[in-house]
Amino acid sequence: MRSLHLPGEPLVPILFAVVIAIGGALVALVLFPLFGTLGMSANALSHRIHEAGVGVSIRIPHFPERSTIYAKDGTVLATLYLDENRDIVHLGRVAQIAQKAVLAIEDDGFYQHGGINVPSMLRAMAANLIAGRVTQGGSTITQQLVKNAVIENTRQTFARKFREAAIAMRMENRYTKDQILEMYLNDVYFGNGVYGIGTAARYYFAEPASRLSLSQGALLAGIIQAPSDYDPVAHPKAAVRRRDTVLDHMESLGWITGAEADAARARPLGLSAAAERSTQKVQPFFVYYLRNLILDDADHQFDAFGTTREQRIHTLYQGGLKIYTTLDPAWQRYAQEAVDQSPSISLNAGPDVSLVSVDTHTGAIRAMLSGKDYQRDQLDLVWRGTRQVGSAFKPFTLAAALEQHVPPGTVYSSRSPYCSPAWTSADHCVSNAESGDHGYIDLWTATQDSVNVVFAQLALDIGPSSIVDAAHAMGITAPLQAVPSITLGTEEVSTLDMASAYSTLANDGAHCTPFAIVLVDVPGGGTLYRHRPRCEQAISPTIAHQITAMLQRVVCCGTGTAANIGRPVAGKTGTAQDYTNVYFAGYTPQVATAVWVGFPQGQIPMGSYYGHSVFGGTLAAPIWHAFMAKATAGMPVESFPAPPPQPSGTVPDVVGMRSLEAQQSIDHAHFTPIVVKVDSVEPVNTVLEQSPAGGTKLALGGGVKISVSNGKGKGVAVPGVVGMEQDVAVKALEHAGLVAKVKLIDVTNKHEEGVVIEQDPGANEHVDRGSTVVIQVGRSPAPATTAPAAPP
């Protein structure tokens, strides 16, 4: 090393003596300000220092330590901290060479002196006086630890320095040198929000502290004196010079050889990518979600973190927690890929996407995608961001209806629009997505084809409040208005709620509250929090199985065929009014996933962006398919439980009844009367015919069509009697007010004997009452006779 050269060297001894004298006086001022004389004995000094430390706790408080969040596979999702990013390490896990570098530049006599080092203080004062500025510090490592961790007061006052010295001496009596050095290395600041040598090693070099090299250890040791000035990111040249100063000092102490020092000086900084970025990246949305879940503690689930928000912040950000979560990084990647690769989604413009996937049996959240680029946009589109889900809400209507024992075979008119004073829209009407009238259809078909007018009638029949109750029981947490249009998904709910509620159907009707955190450990291995499943039976298993069977038809044969992934799947499409939001929510027996597509800015029609109408089945279902095909690829193929047997009954015979009486009879038998008025001279509202006929077996809720007289027919409608036996046909004609005329005709078929073969006028022709109807009745041919012989 080069020797110090000062101009006017003959004056140096005199100047040094003066410096020593002044330094001694300053030390006296530092250590004896409470005494009126400088001649106090060593015993008196020791006694006074002891007195200064009496009543002061020398227990080092627990250093704030960052918390780490882990994914399901053990990879790190994020680290959480406030002002101090710190990962505490034991001294034995810090490379010896790095320890030596810190000791060399901060306190090379640490293991030889006590809590204070008077000669060191004198040398520092002399150097500072010669330089005309502060170039060295005289505090020991123990004093620095006391200043930072116990007193937390950096003001340069005599009282503070005296108290610092007193506590440092007492600390050396309580802790070993290794313990003090370990605490110091974990407490000291290394710049860029990094505290402690373990965190600094990871941040600056992406290495554990145990693997720090000589060059790396010297660089970190050099930062300690002035983290801003020697910041290797902002001031790399200054950091290199400071590192080399540390190496020089280590060499002068004989702790490293000249060759080792030269090799270390020749090495580049070698900073990690994280350090070169110098800013903390945006954490995944999932981290935002669970962080706020803990801090809000809305249902007191996380009281273990603290009973107040301030306490929970302290525990979460400074408690050194290890937080183990449910998120599957592979599934999260599949979700992003499904969006990125969708031909309908532009990553830089147009509608956005949210996706949530949960384990149906536990509620564990496996994937949570909030927007196509959360790093850029930072939008909450899955939790607090709620949207209309369109017809994807219809399964909750089915649940409410089945709980009221409405059979799935129940039929309603599909004519669009359907209007009713009870429907609360401006015009009191609701329409199907597609025009047309397919007659009366049952709930199976209405679900498969997402027929709005059928669900509108069903909602009015069962009452909107029952739909609200069913939705909340199954997992929807958003407030809902009990209005008829709720069945069409006009209420806004979150994607998380939809995935959770659909998982109820897959889980035999039991709803498991979705959760993100499995376990939280504290430093030392204790457990702060452990998730306990919260599952409750929301709807009966038979109802869940029935709805699942109906939703399977949506995927196999209805509006959701794009979601077919080659294994049993149930689900429902949804399209909000004006195509502002589209949806697909579906599940296998193991996994439930919901996908929303729309503009995050609000209810903006997507038709103008795409240039055509969009639907849940054409926009959201393909994304669902792309994600679920990968997520379930390694799972065994499981089938859904079979739905309960479809209830059936016997159709009553209502021909001849008055219309009201007939409808009541059909209702009482749990069928749906379908009334058709026909021209007839029979008394008004008389049932003339029915289909199916009385005595037929039919699924409950099925339609029974009855033809009812309007009393305006012309004459009498001739009943059809072809195929009847002669006596029965005659009575039928007479009952209609007509006269039967029998005409016998020969037949060769035994089965036609005595049976009406033809009639005139034909069936349903209108004739005057009392008119004659000719019926041809079959008979066996007369036997042939032999002619008598001619007389001879």
Commentary on this structure:
- The chain has 26 helices and 30 strands.
- Helix content is 37%, strand content 17%.
- Helix 1 (12-31) crosses helix 4 and helix 17 (394-403) crosses helix 19 (452-462).
- With 792 residues, it is of the alpha+beta class.
- The strands form 11 sheets. It has a 5-stranded mixed sheet with strand order 2-1-5-15-16. It has a 5-stranded antiparallel sheet with strand order 7-6-20-19-18.
- 43% of the residues are buried.
List keywords for this structure.
disordered N terminus, alpha+beta, five-stranded antiparallel β-sheet, 792 residues, five-stranded mixed β-sheet, 26 helices, rod-shaped
CA radius of gyration: 45 Å
Strand order of the largest sheet: 2-1-5-15-16
Structural category: alpha+beta
DSSP summary, beta strand count: 30
List segments where confidence is low: pLDDT < 50 over at least 5 consecutive residues.
Answer: 1-42
Residue-averaged pLDDT: 86
- Shape category: rod-shaped
Quote the beta fraction.
15-25%
Total number of helices: 26
